[in-house]
Structure formats: structure tokens, C-alpha cells
Hints:
This protein is mostly helical. About 60% of the residues lie in helices and about 0% in strands. The longest helix is centred in the last third of the chain and has 29 residues, at about 20-45. The relative contact order is 0.08.
Amino acid sequence: MRLPFNDNRPPWDRPFDMRRVLVWWSITALLALFWSFTGMWLYDLLT
């Protein structure tokens, strides 16, 4: 958690930055897809 008076942050490190939000959303979506596919594959493999 950052201090509120720290204003000399780079542009990609400010809160509510759409690029950072989209990057993190895409990373979590890709991880969720990967884990769902590996989970289905392991389920088919083990049963």
C-alpha cells in the first residue's frame, strides 16, 4: 500500500490506469482458461 502523498509515480503506476487493469485482467483470464483446461484434462486422465 502506497502513501497518498507520493505523487512522483510513473504514469503506468497510477491508480485506475486502464492499461494496467486490462493487462491484469487478460493475465488472470489466461490463467483461468489454462487452469480450467488442465483441470478438465486431469479429470479425464484420472477417471
